Amino acid sequence: MLKKFTILLVAINFATAPITSLYAQEQSSEPIFEYSEINHPVMGKKGMVASHNALSSEITAEILAKGGNAIDAGAALGFALAVTLPRAGNIGGGGFMLVHVAKLNKTIAVDFRETAPAAAHQDMYFDESGNVAPMDPSYRFSHKSSAVPGSVAGLAHIVEKYGTMTLAEVLEPAIRLARDGIIVTYDLAADLARSERLKNNPASLKKFYKPDGSNYEVGELFKQPDLAWTLQQIADHGVDAFYKGSVAEKIVADMEAHNGLITMEDLASYKVIEREPVRGTFRGYDIAAIPAPSSGGTHVIEMLNILENFPLSEMGPGSAAALHVTAEAMKLAYADRSKYLGDPDFVEIPTDALVSKDYAKSLAAKISMDKATPSEDIAPGNLAIYESDETTHYSVIDSEGNIVGNTYTLMFSFGSGVVIEGTGILMNNNMGNFTLRPDIPDAFGLMGSENNIISPNRRPVSSMSPIIVSKDGKPFLVTGTPGGSKIISANMQMVLNVLEYGMNIGDAAVAPRIHHQWYPDELLLESGISPDTITLLRQKGHKINFNKSSEAMGSLQTVMFKDGMFYGYSDPRRPGAKAVGVD
Ligand code: DON
Question: Domain 276-389+463-561, what fold?
Fold first, then answer.
């Protein structure tokens, strides 16, 4: 099957190749369609973008078409989504980007995750008897639920360091969309109509609803003048406007008025961190992903390493045998996640051990082909330190080979629901990704350890991770997804579907997904898996559940360069998304 997916990668010496034609020199004028495929990705000759908002993808493709590189375009898209996709696009949250800089032939993991405010402490969400209700508003939906945002610093960082445009130029489309308004789409109208959280905060009510409190209708014009002001401040005065200047003052005044913890000092000391990507291989391909404090990269690689020990394509995609082994690999990796992951600036994490092929072999040997191992019989491994409704993802690639894969978030849909008065900034509730106590699961039911406990300036463990797959040193596939704990399993299944089962990125995205995160001990299935297969999985002892959180699992936004052509595919699991090619 893998033969179908032969990539004609020409060995290129990146140091001497003319950068401007890195991908262009291999371009094919022959669009290739395979009639055996069910889902057909979008094509483009000079670049590709895939995001959760069609208008923003189109604007980004225009930037590429006019000569901006993928880094300029990726930053512009991050700001634009803060306007067009308020449930997840943001300047009040944070995330992780993988940036491939063609002229350096280097992939960099940009950590712009939020940090806990200096006044945060381990007991901040417990009542006097040591309890916290899972949906306690002070924990989930208040000024106190926000960590210090990193998005503005992260997006500015990549454009100022690796882009060709100015920060003001990449902010221009977002400012225009906020100031002049956007036409309300079906998905935006539906998102806003059902968000009770936004209606509970006066500044959010004013921003997202009409003056009489009623909902915006599909087709109406929705303007965000306060957000336009904030974005303009950043364009005029740089990131300092947000972290030290006029915007910071408004954020802190609102925090002080509502028991929030974020101070001027917290904002001024926020830092973007460039990290080495965590790296692995699968069937001869190279994988680069986000290291701690995200768990996303480490455990995708751990699962792929385990799965490399099984003849999955012989078993057949979607077969009970292949799904069984995949689910067992997930349990083992999520168990390790619970014990080891934390902020590497605070705790030591045995990343090299977690992604080693030998360790994966020892885990693979524990998998029985006949029987699902109950979660209670699985414990995180004993590893030594070797060495020394919402998130969004988008992927952008240009003809020089620059790449931005960005997964950023407010955490839940519309984050904390809190808009900072006078700024239009919707704040995150990512404090919910800390482990309150090792026996209390986080907002996504994930178990954690002391490694992820709240402490000042620490970054909570995340699952978010863009993934770049390369062959012979050349990146060709970029993907990523929202989905909380399911980000890790969804990303892994995309890589598996393409590299192991030979699917195109459309079929790979659409194929029904499974998820097991160790605890709770249940195998979640999307619809589309045959009842016969489900019976076989039950016979092996899997406790099957359908994804009852009413969400399909993740929504992958993927771009790819293959056989001289750019391809893009927006997973249909979220409405309103679009891949746009550049010609
Ligand atoms: O960092 C994390 O893992 C979470 N804050 C991501 C949240 C998320 O993906 C919700 N979206 N569906």
Answer: Serum Albumin; Chain A, Domain 1 (1.10.246)
